[in-house]
Write a structure and sequence with these properties.
alpha/beta; LipidA_mod_glycosyltrf_83; 5 strands; single chain; pentosyltransferase activity; five-stranded mixed sheet; 2 domains; transmembrane helix; 22 helices; transmembrane
Length: about 450
């Protein structure tokens, strides 16, 4: 039960309200691609999204059986439960069964981990593979064999194919091998080199797609780091309690530095690299959260042991963490608890559209994710693309295409210089008058009616 109870708790907490929030833009891209023909997926992988290729393939069977929000989010939920189980197994191996039990249960209670357990993206799976790879490394170091190193290398390949930036964990593994088992460095290097060869194709393709994939990243500052630590726990008070337990865990686990390195070194490395070459985003370092939970669990175990096993210590710790994180759990499970409420946008459009209405996606990429709730969009005349191409229409082409349309729905980000300067938008404002504008998170739906109507 010391290893299964965290997994069961994670399933229960992660499954709570899993279908309530709307799919948002990132999830919607996953859903649209997973439901699309393989030919379209190959084209997308070649253009902008190779880094998520393995995840999209994994998602296809779930999308094939109806593609409901529950089914699409199910792989992340399973990975969340698997991570809690893996933390418990790691804690049992490194410290003892109670440290693993506490760490796994605390992981299940953390709002950030729970939120990505309900996302149609790969981040929960990356956390699971990070735990698996770390366990496999420890197993190979304790009982070295060719088979164990090969299996570890496969886990590294999976880690990179699910998210390249998660390979920052390999630096932690390198330090752990060097400090704990210097004689095991060579077989570890060979295992990582073999994994690196399997990752070369992805690195080559992804490096050419960075500008289209990560143009929005910026160099982080220290406020971003403190915000990340707060996001893990959901609020400041919960973060104070959690990281107090983590501090105790660092002290009690000082003879097994791999856990503390895993918890903090990738964050620091990502922060420093991003000052020159931005790679930092909180979800990109989500794979450190299992280590933070494990450290906190070791802290609870350590304090309990120092007080001669007093049962009040873990009870107080879990009641505090549970009570302080509850409001954050509720917030992320609201219908509009994601950056975009695309379900509500689709419902409004379906209720208010008229036969012969047109739609303009500006910029073009908004079509890829907004149409995940696609029924209302099938009834609209799409004015976005030039005929037979993936290129946006020119201003003249847009004017000609909209000649027979009296009303146009604009799907766009919040108004700003980038989309206001779009030539199609300039033509839209010249020939049509603005009627209404509603925001659904970071996506807005505006209605324009022809001037002479």
């Amino acid at each position: 039960m010391a290893v299964w109870l965290p997994a069961l708790a994670a399933l229960a907490i992660g499954g709570w309200g899993i279908t309530v929030p709307s799919l948002w833009r990132d999830e919607s891209v996953s859903a649209v691609v997973a439901r699309s023909p393989l030919s379209y997926m190959r084209q997308l992988m070649g253009d902008i999204d190779a880094v998520h290729a393995l995840y999209y393939l994994l998602l296809r069977p779930f999308a094939a059986f109806g593609g409901s929000e529950f089914l699409l989010r199910l792989p992340s939920l399973i990975a969340f439960a698997g991570t809690a189980y893996g933390i418990a197994v790691l804690g049992r191996r490194l410290v003892g069964p109670m440290a693993g039990l506490y760490g796994g249960l605390l992981y299940a209670l953390l709002p950030m981990a729970s939120r990505y357990a309900q996302e149609v993206r790969s981040y929960a799976i990356v956390s699971f593979v990070a735990v698996l790879a770390t366990w496999l490394l420890i197993d190979a170091l304790d009982s070295p064999s060719r088979r164990r190193y090969v299996v570890y290398a496969v886990s590294v390949v999976l880690l990179g194919w699910f998210h390249l930036y998660a390979l920052l964990l390999i630096g932690v593994h390198a330090v752990a091998v060097w400090t704990a088992r210097p004689r095991r460095v060579l077989p570890w290097v060979l295992a990582v080199a073999g994994a690196g060869i399997a990752l070369v194709p992805l690195v080559v393709v992804a490096s050419g797609q960075r500008e289209t994939q990560l143009f929005w990243l910026h160099p982080p500052n220290f406020e971003d780091l403190t915000a990340f630590l707060e996001e893990i726990a959901g609020n400041t008070a919960a973060a104070v309690v959690l990281f107090s337990l983590v501090a105790c865990g660092v002290w009690w686990s000082r003879r097994i530095p791999i856990v503390a390195l895993w918890a903090f070194a990738p964050i620091l490395a990502s922060f420093l690299i991003s000052q020159v070459y931005p790679v930092y985003d909180p979800r990109y370092v989500l794979f450190v959260v299992p280590a933070i939970a494990l450290l906190a669990g070791i802290g609870v175990h350590g304090v309990t042991t120092s007080l001669r096993g007093h049962i009040a210590v873990p009870i107080i710790a879990f009641v505090l963490v549970g009570a302080l994180t509850f409001s954050a759990h509720v917030a992320i499970r609201e219908p509009a608890g994601r950056p975009d409420d695309l379900r509500s946008l689709s419902a409004v459009l379906g209720a208010e559209q008229r036969p012969g209405d047109g739609v303009l996606f500006a910029p073009l990429r908004y079509r890829l994710f907004v149409t995940v709730y696609g029924e209302p969009f099938r009834n609209l005349i799409d004015l976005t693309n030039a005929p037979g191409t993936y290129e946006p229409r020119t201003a003249d082409q847009f004017t000609a295409a909209a000649a027979s349309v009296d009303r146009v729905w604009l799907v766009a980000p919040p108004a700003g210089p980038r989309n206001i300067g779009d030539p199609r938008f300039v033509e839209l404002r010249r020939d049509f008058k603005f009627v209404s504008n509603r925001s659904f998170g970071y996506t807005r739906l505006a209605l324009y009616v022809r001037n002479n109507r």
